[in-house]
Amino acid sequence: MSDEIELKLEIAPDALASVLKSEALRARGVRFRPARQLRTAYYDSPDAALKAHGIFLRVRADGRSFVQTVKTAGEGGLLARRGEWEWPLKGPEPDLALALETGLKPLAKRLRRNDLRQVFLSDMTRRIALVRDADSVLELALDRGEVRAGRRHEAVCELEIEIKAGGAEPLFALARALAALPGVGVGHVTKAARGFALAAGKPPRAVKAAPVALDQAMTPQHAAAAIVDACAAQAAANVPAVARRRLPEGVHQLRVALRRLRAALAVFKDVLPGEARRALRTEAGWLAGLLGPARDLDVITADTLKAAAPPPTMADDMRALGRALAAARRTAWTEAVAAAASPRTTALLIDLAQAAWTLRATPPEEAASLADFAAAQLERRFEAVLAAAGEIDALDVEARHELRLALKKLRYAADFFAGLYPRKAAKKGLKVLAALQEALGGFNDAASVDAILARVVAAAPSVRRPALERAALFVSGWAAHRGALAWQEARRCWAAFADDGAFWR
Q1: Beta bridge partners of 130
Q2: Residue 328 half-sphere exposure, CB side, CA atoms within 13 Å?
Q3: In a 3-state reduction of DSSP, which class is residue 384?
Q4: Where residue 348 falls among pLDDT bands split at 50, 70, 90?
């Protein structure tokens, strides 16, 4: 078995020629070897047992040679670390007996010799180059081709940078230099993930945050690395959902990833180096700020405007407001797409990968208990929520907003550390926190309608403003009613939060 440590960059096909001629590669003396055609078949059981356990079995044809590989999904965010086993084969059929030598239990328990089926194919033209830098050796694998599952297919153009020897610093330096070029972004989706999605007929979609696997034996430093990795992975997965597919849920989930990241940077402020932490926080805030208007206008056009149900006499006014909102939304989305696709966002993702790597590679100064660290962080945020609530019935709009922000910080910290506590108690506590956060979020969405509509009306030509103002007044009144209902729900959830929210105690 060997460990594969690599970073993947996606390259727009029309940018490939300029990337190959770039100073980033020329200065490092990169010379790609002649292309090889690689045809790879991926296998699984009929019930997808291997995929469910994060194991991938493939047979690759390279000319007349065949190699069988078993890989694990591995750990890490953008800088992936995977277990890998390889054996030469005499033919194109997989050899399960060899695969069982890995010792991976799902292979032994779930598969039988006749229980494998081909799920999809990867057909790639690959060019390899080696980069030597002091004591480090990097392998660059430039793949161009497609992944096919039945009649479905997806084009691939990517550069995998793998550490063959030495440390990761040269990898990050090269990735950063390439990421400054047009058409280059951080890739997070493996060929295996692409193929299984195609085989299942699943359309591309936004990616929600995945649970972070922590255990009591970790130090706070290693827990910080795992959490930063998870935030980076969610962000990277949703960048193309915004930049290429323009999915409204993609904007939402990318903002969630950035908010979780900023929450993590606050939780681990004594663990992460100050300068690096501040830079990451600044860049995450920059991107979130450019995504915010698109998300606000998505909500008001897809939800608030449609649900307001005005009387028929206001039909013309409402159509005028709808057109004005749609125009504002197009502008906001243009800015969001540009931000998501920008080299600055790609640089942020690479910086996150390097921060996580550094946290793992640097020995901690002291082996602090992760359980004690987590409990202290959760308790501090719980007390901040109680302080923000104060006399909850007397809170004005601004104070309710501050309560929502305090609760959000607690919710993200609780999500991060939930795996350290008894499952039943943590699940109940997170459910209570989620319900209260959703109610407060509904109130905040309603409370923000006035300001959004005011900006849209002010930007319209003066001749259209009377109609827009009438429609905006109606929608604002309806939103205020909805906000009052959301606050009633938040008050109802508050009692449950006070009883069951502190599951770590």
Answers
A1: 139
A2: 25
A3: helix
A4: very high
Residue whose structure tokens are 């359309």? 203
- Both tokens assigned to 423: 């499952």
Bridge partner list, 122: 40, 147
What is the average pLDDT across 49-78?
85
Task: Count Cα neighbours of 37 within 13 Å in the Cβ-side half-sphere.
Answer: 3
Q: Using CA atoms, how far apart are residues 110 and 99, in angstroms rounded to an integer?
A: 13
Kindly tell me the sign of the dihedral angle through the C-alpha atoms of 183, 189, 190, 191.
negative
Structural contact between residues 160 and 144, judged by C-beta atoms closer than 8 angstroms: no
Find the helix or strand (DSSP H, E) in which 120 lies.
strand 117-133
Can you count the helices (H) and strands (E) in the chain? 18, 9
How many residues does this entry show for the chain? 505
Locate tokens 């959000």: which residue? 408
Max distance between CA atoms of the chain, in angstroms, equals: 79
Q: Quick one: which of 8, 322, 328, 314 has its CA closest to 141? A: 8
CB 57 within 8 A of CB 133: no
* pLDDT tens, residue by residue, 134-177: 788 999 999 999 999 999 999 999 999 999 999 899 999 999 99
The string of DSSP letters for 15-71 reads GHHHHHTSHHHHTTT--PPPPEEEEEEEEE-TT-HHHHTTEEEEEEEETTEEEEEEE
In contact, 277 and 265? CB cutoff 8 Å = yes
Residue closest to 79 by CA, chosen among 360, 416, 350, 342: 350
Which helix H or strand E contains 145, and what residues bound it? Answer: strand 136-149
Task: Provide the 3-class DSSP secondary structure of residue 352.
Answer: helix
Residues 151, 428: Cα–Cα separation, whole Å? 44
Q: What does DSSP say about strands 55-62 and 117-133: parallel, antiparallel, or unpaired?
A: unpaired
Distance CA(89)–CA(67), nearest Å, equals 6
In the block, residue with structure tokens 């694990």: 72
Phi, psi of 142 (to 5 degrees): -95, 110
Q: Nearest CA to 22 among 214, 132, 178?
A: 178
Rounded-to-integer distance, Cα 259 and Cα 231, Å: 9
Predicted structure pTM score: 0.91
Per residue in 471-502, pLDDT (tens digit) is: 999 999 999 999 999 999 999 999 888 877 78
